[in-house]
Amino acid sequence: MNYAGFIGGAYEVQSISADCQRCINLYPQQDESQAGKNTAIILSTPGLTRLIDLTTTNIGPIRCTYTSSKGRLFAVVGSQANGSSLVELSNTFAILGTYPLPNETGNGQVSMTDNGIDMLILTGPNGYWFHFSSDGSIDNMTIVAPGSGWIVGDQFSVGGVGSGGVGTITSILAGGVPSGISIVSIGSDYVNANVPATALLPSAGIGLTVALTVLVGNTLTQVTDEVFEGGTQCGFIDGYIVFNQPGTQEFWITNLNSTVINPLGFASAEGQPDTLIGLLVDHREIWLFSSTHAEVWYDSGNANFPFSYIQGAYISHGIVSPWTAVRLDNTVMWLGQDEFGNAIAWRANGYAPLRISTYAMEQAWQRYSTVSDAVAWTYQQDGHSFWVINFPSGDTTWVYDAATGTWHERAYLGTLLVDDGQLHRGRPNTHTFSFGKHIVGDWEKGYIYQLSPLVYEDDTREIQRLRRAPFINNEHKRIIFHQFELDMEVGQGNPNANEPVNPPAEPVDPQISLRWSDDGGYTWSAYLNISMGLSGEYKKRIIWRRLGRSRQRIFEVSTGQNNVNLALYNAYLELEGTTS
Question: What is the mean pLDDT of the chain?
């Protein structure tokens, strides 16, 4: 008989003798064809490959990873004790540049955004502007000598030591004297100079000389505007960079396509008189989060301040940690809090909150010493959109799969220094997609990893994968368990796997383990191990026999120290019921 519910996610309630399902480093996936072995299967979560160690730059965690609108990859690494730096990485993950953040003594998450010209880095008390280089391209032109004989729309080439720079006449005075110009092509390899211009099309104006302002290098400067009093989260919308001011109800904007913070460019969250602690831009709207509510603003084009509150976009659930608000699956999700309590996961359905956590998840979260330190990140892989939430105080990582609506756990075996045999929260704490790879940063040390489903270990550490299935009982009558068969991917062992490679070579004889509990998950049997099959043993059956009797039972299968892909299709039981 099929083991009902064997394929599923995590659901361990407060009273584990009622339900104690776990799904660690595994996740369920529906069979969309509905014509396979089962309507759903369980697959392995991705592993980690270390790309670069940034501890040579600053000792501390990866505080942010970010891919700019120009496709450039950045990370912030460091700590309160050692300072922090902005680091740019190449597509081969070599360091292109290191920019120390002056006066930075923070240790927490960092927020970054850019407008295509400048990138804002917010650390809480401090802010920094990073101006993108353009390899000697023209940033601006101004008229030095106007010449004559020009008409609006004329184009001209720019001379000097460079190539490809083209401007256009946008306005003229009497006699064809230019009064306005703009850049058509920025060119390359120019230097700051006054340069004579030559007419191209459609007429032959003469005598025009322009002054070129050229970007020749990256620059990082601290935000020094008098009105700036810190910021924790930022975003880009319609040419403006927006950010919240810590400890207030206010959020601020820059001038349009500028780094200048307008002294009058601020507004306050209106719904409640509580502090604004989080900000997220999604679908050209600004989501503002306090501890008890959320509200949404849009670009109304008002002359005095361009953003306005959307009538009706008020949500009576705030956020418990600003770093849990994410964009995913074409909407917004966050870990909630309000005046009645906290730790419920919400998904926006329009502007209405939809609860997506379960009683089991909420009971677990609310028993951590705090959830205000939770940090989340998201990614999409193999058709699944994952919301990954790290709980430092709970030393756990929970993941929501928007494709199936299920939850599972992710865990790292041991600490960075030693495998202590215990499962701890996952290593990644930041994420960005860059150069066609999922790039994640370590929460403790300056390691940058690639997250890949083709890697079956976490940076050379084994991954323990575990599925604890639902209860089996028959009105507390004794059940005789003759056989447990696991339908899974087999034949992955490799007798020639002697040298470590990436992805790691399969072990000689990978093992799958079975154990069970007859008292509701409080005590467990010894592990019974069976080979998952050497390479080519694709017909191997995974069967445990003569498993005793009990009035109730929970089965658990797991694997570790194998470095192989684990895929579970179903489980089958041969049982014999009794009358007492």
Answer: 93
Residue 4 lies inside a defined structural domain of this protein: no
Distances (CA, A) of 555 to 24, 51, 317, 469: 15, 38, 39, 6
Q: Which comes out higher in pLDDT, residue 154 or 106? A: 154
pLDDT at 505: 57
The mean pLDDT value for 269-287 works out to 94
DSSP labels, 148-171: BS--TT-EEEE-SS-EEEEEEEEE
pLDDT computed for residue 498 by the predictor? 47
Tokens standing for residue 441: 């940063």
Q: Residue 110 above 80 pLDDT?
A: yes
Distance, CA of 456 to CA of 43 (rounded, Å)? 12
215, 238, 271 — which closes off a domain? 215
Could you tell me which of 455, 441, 458, 501 has the C-alpha nearest to residue 52? Answer: 441
Q: How many domains would you assign to the chain?
A: 3
pLDDT at residue 351, as a whole number: 97
How far apart (Å, rounded) are the C-alpha atoms in residues 449 and 438? 8
How many Cβ atoms from other residues are within 10 Å of residue 383's Cβ? 9
pLDDT band for position 562 (cuts 50, 70, 90)? confident
Where helices occur in 132-277 by DSSP H, the ranges are none
Q: Report the C-alpha gap between 125 and 161 in whole angstroms.
A: 43
Structure tokens at 257: 């396509």
Class of residue 501 by CB neighbours under 10 A (exposed 0-12, middle 13-18, buried 19+): exposed
Checking if the pLDDT of 502 tops 60, the result is no
Quick check: is 348 in a domain?
Answer: yes
On whether residue 5 sits in a domain, the answer given is no
Is the pLDDT reported for residue 537 higher than 70? yes
In this structure, what CATH number is given to the domain that contains residue 170? 2.40.10
Q: What integer pLDDT is reported at residue 493 of this predicted model?
A: 81
Residue 2 resides in a domain = no
Provide the pLDDT confidence category of residue 485 given band limits of 50, 70 and 90. Answer: very high
State yes or no: pLDDT of 48 exceeds 90.
Answer: yes
Judge whether 441 and 434 are in contact, CB under 8 Å: no
Q: What is the DSSP letter of 55?
A: G
CA distance 570 to 580: 29
Structural domain span for residue 32: 11-45+463-577
CATH number of the domain bearing residue 507:
2.60.120.260
Residues linked to residue 484 through DSSP beta bridges, in sequence order? 544, 573
User: In whole angstroms, what is the distance from residue 300 CA to residue 172 CA?
Assistant: 34
Structural domain ending residue among the three candidates 163, 195, 215:
215
Q: Is the pLDDT of residue 499 over 50?
A: no
- The Cα-based distances of 64 to 132, 167, 243 in angstroms read 18, 38, 16
Q: Within this chain, do residues 422 and 288 fall inside the same structural domain, yes or no?
A: yes
Q: Which residues pair with 158 in a beta bridge?
A: 197
